[in-house]
Amino acid sequence: MFLPRSFIWRWLGNDWFVTEKASALFAISSLLTLALTAVLYIGVPSPSTLSTVSMVLYGVVGFAGPLAMFFLWGGMLRYWTRGEPSNRTARRLWFIVLILGLCYGAILYYTFVYMPTVRRRNREHLEGTA
Amino acid sequence: MRILGRVLLSGWLLLFLAVVLVFAFPKPASHILHSVAPYLQLIPILLLIGTAAYWLLRVYRLGMKRPTSSK
Lengths: 130, 71
Description:
heterodimer; A: mainly alpha; 4 helices; B: mainly alpha; 3 helices; about 0% strand; elongated
């Protein structure tokens, strides 16, 4: 999962990365990463003071959050190695952001590079087929 | 790059072999490992740093190999 060439990424293939489904999954992963960060920063309140719904939500964030972090970081690294061609300076800069920023760098990469590219691609594809 | 990969792989294999030998033959292994005892912590740390650097270099080279846009 961590090597951009290996594991689930090879199984999913390059075409999967530019689908709406993939974009939605990475968006959910970004939100879960931010939610987990907020929970870790604020702290978990005592379970006796929480309602059932809140406990379930904390559980979901606690379980899916770490998985989402690795999925997002690995996915964005994979997209960086295989994705849309850009100039070398921008590519270098985004590599540093992804390596030093880890999953938070991946959120930035998702917002400023991946999402606009996938949206543009899908729009062009729709216009081409219409 | 390929040589570095082989060196790292050999290093990890030797480390795991040493651990297996310590479990299989505790007394003779302790005599042999006694001479390298001061470096026992250093070897896995160096291997970890080396593997991380190797991984970073590989990912970087893989990403920079792609064609660039005309922009």
